[in-house]
Amino acid sequence: MHGLMNIDYEAEVEDDMLPIFRKGEEFNFGEEFVLLITFSDSALGGPAEDALTSLQNLTKEFPSLIVQLSQGLNFHSNKKEFTHAVVIRFRSLEALKIFFGSSEYKSMWRSKFEPITKRALPIHFSVNPVGTEIM
């Protein structure tokens, strides 16, 4: 038997529809990466937000690899197993591997996330539409 986990997080996403439409088909395929994080209590606020901002800024340096990023604080008051969530849509599995293998990412993770992270649960899965009919 398995338990269910609920993460409700407030995220900033692109609010301008034009860039999303320009990406078009790129949203239909790719590799979805989900990272659930528990930051130490002392890191909530300043250091945690600084780490997330650093990740967001780094993803902007890799537009050929990343379609979209959203991240934010878990505001589900009675389920605080994880304090934050990050969702990144990569263009492909290879793009995910290149990003996480980069020296820039490794350095940012070591300096910003490792010192304040109590727990991290990374998950990724392929996004490939089945069939050609629009529902």
Can you offer a commentary on this structure?
The chain is α+β, with helices and mostly antiparallel strands and 135 residues long. The protein has one domain: Alpha-Beta Plaits (2-Layer Sandwich). Helices cover 31% and strands 30% of the residues. The chain contains 4 helices and 5 strands; from the N terminus they run βαβαββααβ. A 5-stranded antiparallel sheet has the order 1-3-4-2-5. The chain is globular, with a radius of gyration of 16 Å. The mean pLDDT is 82.
In the predicted model, the low-confidence regions spanning at least 5 consecutive residues are none
In total, the number of domains comes to: 1
Beta-sheet strand percentage? 25-35%
Mean of residue pLDDT values: 82
CATH architecture name: 2-Layer Sandwich
Strands of the largest sheet, in order across it? 1-3-4-2-5
Instruction: Please name the CATH topology.
Output: Alpha-Beta Plaits
Largest sheet: 5 strands, antiparallel
Task: State the assembly state of the protein chains.
Answer: single chain
Rg over C-alpha atoms, rounded to the nearest angstrom: 16 Å
Note the overall shape.
globular
Alpha-carbon distance between the termini?
32 Å
CATH class: Alpha Beta
Structural class by SSE content: alpha+beta
How many E strands? 5
